[in-house]
Amino acid sequence: MPGARPVGHELDAPPWSRVEGTLLSTARAVRRAYDAALARAGVNLSEASVLAHLQDGGPLTQTELARRIGTGRARMGVWIDGLVDKGAVVREPDPRDRRVWKVGLTPAGRDLWAETARIDRSIRRVLRDGTTEEDRARLDALLTVINRNADGLVPPGPA
Fold first, then answer.
1. Domain count, the chain
2. Alpha helices in the chain, H assignment, sequence order
């Protein structure tokens, strides 16, 4: 039959032995590793991501942060609240539009960001052990394609 897949094709494999299963399992393992290491600094990976974006481009609005990280405004608000409670960030009115609040790093937040950046470098060294620069470049290219394909499966949200 034309177009039929041969028996034993990788798409017919059980979920745990497919590339996608390995990808999901790896993503969970990497997330656990980051969260465990970052917990020693008192944050999780999501909060560390907020700190990194504020360090690179802050102060930013909650909406800008949510867009950059790829999450919703409500979830971002929870992460910001947690960082406010830790004294790492502050909300201040935007001087150009008093209806908008900007989120910025405090001095303690800059110190916390520096600690999370150190932890990130340490984790990346371990995760990359046994790989070459060429391996990582190929993997990055493949994951970029898979990410774009996955994004195409999700209908666009409200503007």
1. 1
2. 19-39, 45-57, 62-69, 73-85, 107-127, 133-153
CA atoms within a 13 Å half-sphere pointing along the CA-CB vector of 133:
0
Tell me, yes or no, whether 35 lies in a domain.
Answer: no
Prediction pTM value = 0.80
Q: What is the pLDDT of residues 5-14, one digit of tens each?
A: 555 666 676 6
Which one, of 104, 54, 46, lies nearest residue 79 by Cα?
46
The answer as to whether 86 is a domain residue is yes
Identify the domain containing residue 67 by its residue range.
43-127
Strand partners, 105: 89
- Compute the radius of gyration of the chain from its Cα atoms: 20
Report yes or no on 120 lying in a domain. yes
